[in-house]
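Sync notes, pocket subgroup
Present: LS, DG
LS reminded everyone that the earlier model was apo-only. Rerun requested with 1,3-dihydroxyacetonephosphate included. Inputs:
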Amino acid sequence: MTDRYEQLVAIAQALVAPGKGLLAIDESSGTIKKRFDSVQVENTEANRLDYRSMMLSAPGLGEHISGAILFDETIRQKMADGSSLVQVMERAGILPGIKVDAGARPLAGFAGEKVTEGLDGLRERLAEYVELGAKFAKWRAVISIGEDIPSRACIDANAHALARYAALCQEAGIVPIVEPEVLMDGAHDLDTSFDVTEATLKALFAQLYDQNVMLEGTLLKPSMVISGSEADERAEVEEVAEATVDCLLNAVPAATAGVVFLSGGQGDVEATAHLDAMNKMGDMPWPMSFSYGRALQAECLAAWAADPQGNRENAQQILLHRARMNGLAALGEWSEEEEG
Ligand code: 13P
């Protein structure tokens, strides 16, 4: 076994250590503007630094958060005392990760569908991110459910790009997180979500195999199998957990280092309850944990925005609570009572 192989496996395993998961704070410039607009905060570089450094320096965050995914701007930022955010994370025992895709754009010839861009020049960008301290990376593909979509072309184009990205990451010594998000938007039922997720995952793992990606050094960041957000009757927690686990068992090879779900617009406690229910189902071939953005940040962001200086510690406590709840869910040890 080569040093590179062992290095990738060690990073991947550290990211899914028992009771730990990931904090996704890699919102692109457009997405963080939307989040800030929702709480009436001006989208300036100083505010983005203040908000994200507040989260990363929450005392004890590393107990439940193994890694945080950063945006290009964030991995380069320094605090007033001169320490970089990467150094803050290293002191807290949190591994730095980096979003490297360039966003989802309309897929030519397929109305309503998208393909994620960003492969050009990626080898060079990854080399720079290694210098900046990144240990892992993320690439998000977006699959929409609607009338006659997703198309096979959309699923395959996104799977191909994800696999090319993952191979480049491993060449650079960075653990790839492959994120094929099947969007919750729409009125579709649980079965449709299941079928689309299964087709997407099978296409992805076929491409990862074809392109020599080492699964022991790869993390999957999937959406859960869940009813559409506008569905008439939305599936209960137990149904979501069972459908998601069935789907993953059908499509995700046992060698994969771990599964870290996205929250995708679920409520904070809902996302925790789903993860917990899955982990209560017993032993699985891979650890199942979280890589939540909104479901970890929503309440913390609202508290911070109300008074960035005065509420700093309160906002940190809110984040620590959600991180602890999701850490328990990653072990299947969460309950409503823990929410307090
Ligand atoms: P959400 O948990 O808000 O879906 O964000 C996770 C993420 O990183 C999306 O790419």
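DG: The first helix runs from residue 3 to 15.
LS: DSSP finds twelve helices and ten strands in the chain.
Action: DG to write up.
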